[in-house]
Amino acid sequence: MSRALPLRKSLLVRLLITSVLIALCSVAATAWLAVQTTTRAIQEEQGQVLAEDMDILRQLSGYAATHADWAGVGGTLRALSHRTGRRIALTAGDRTPFADSAVRGTSLPPRAAATVDPLRTDTSTEPGAQLAGVDPRAVGPYRLTSNERRKVAKLAYVRQLCFARNGVRTRTELMPSGRTALTGVDGTLDPGYVPTECADGLLNTPTPTERKALDGLSALARTCLDGRGVHLGHSLPLPLEAASGATAVPYLTGKRPVGRDASLTRTVESCLAEARRRQLDPYVAPAAELFLGTGDRPVPRFDMSAANKAKVFGVTGLVLALTVAVTALVATRLVRPLRALTLAAQQPPERHVRVPVTTQDETGILARAFNELTERRERLESQRKAMVSDIAHELRTPLTNIRGWLEVARDGLVDPDPELLSSLHEEAVVLQRVIDDLQDLAAADAGTLRLHREEVRADELLEQVAAAHRVGAGAAGVRLITEHEGTPWLDADPVRMRQALGNLVSNAVRHTPAGGTVTLSAHREGGEVVFTVADTGTGIAPGDLDSVFDRFWRAEKSRSRRTGGSGLGLAIVRQLTTAHGGTASVTSEPGTGSAFTLRLPGERQPAGPLPDVADE
Fold this sequence. Notes:
Distance between the termini: 48 Å
Low-confidence stretches: 127-131, 255-259, 558-564
Number of strands: 13
Number of domains: 4
């Protein structure tokens, strides 16, 4: 009916694209809102939980840094649990409990939240703890005595006054070991900066307690270095910074061997870290596993704020408005041609209204199909009217003749002699032939035409048809011959096939002048059997070839119905051929002749001997 529709013009594709775009907008907007609000809520919740976890870990690490065991941690642990609403449990590596805020017998969570080890911290629980991996509150043998604290505090005060005279504002800070240190008010004071007037060397000089601890650290470090094959040849002059793990390597080694700085630095730093842990180990609690649970506190629930609700409703309204607008636009474009089709279909049938084709999509295809249907209906209506007129004419002529002769005979004007009876019989035969043809066409149209199929030889069929029409052809001076290639077989109703071929032969004889030839041929072509009835008659005009198989069509309109036939023979040929699953066609050249071709499904040759066919 029409060429293939491009995908870009397909109504289905356009609707799908529209739906996908709307869905994508909705999903994108919803996802954006969900990500924004949920991420913010999760970040807030995670930040709060993380802050609580870090605070618990900081306080327990501080306890471990200042106590040699976990014996008295129960009170601290219960206070933390009461403040945070979390279950807190401390166990050894084999899950032997040190302390637990839950009742005895409560199972532990499947995994520990962290390891509390002040000598190997992996989280910044205190400023500077991540630098050396040792909690700065673990001071052990570096803790100053009361007299040393007062002396260092006095020196720090003198240093602070000196800094003030030089225009540097400072503040004092008490370190975990009890030493007083100076820091900048705004945190920008360089630790290594000391005005010349203030550089008396007293504040940063180790106290006896610190010197004793540094000597012990130096001895442990020397033992480690000797074990690793590093022999410095002198003692380690450890400064006060070594107590916090912030000592620079050049100060420790006293020299810089060429080409070995990087390796020596790493070795010395490793031994110092190991020596500090060994020195502090007796003064801190053993490493413990920290388990955290929700306790009696309800699980946090996400509660959307008013601002987030406003965003959700706003975006939802925008998406809804966009969806309504796009859908309305698409629906309007779709409904407009459908309304035109509906209006045209509601018009009276005799008007045969067409609709304009304005699009190239499925709606446009529907409009063209509607117009084609209207044209076919108009054409069929014209054919129906013409057929009714032709049928009336076909029946009126013989009936008028019969009635006229019967009235004349009744009135005694003529005698019912054999000649009159023969004329009346001839008119009745014409009338019966028209009725029989109409009955066959009606049965074919209704699908009730019965076929009694059997295996038929095409050459036999040709000879039977030729024998039936050879006398009439001879009387008209027309030579009738048959031709066939081999013995093609077909599954067909022999009576109906003789009727179809007979109609073609009688039509060919009728239109072939005396001295002409009508040829019946049959041959196999692929899986089909092809019958051809060719004549050397007057032929058919090219403009009439499409109407040859129409009912009551005749090439010569002036030919009488008695000599020219009823105009139903070729229509019956097409219907019978179609009923057998074949096709009928015609080729013609005016003044040369015509050739009618029937193509029918072939059949395999049956087993057994073939019967002889007598040549006519």
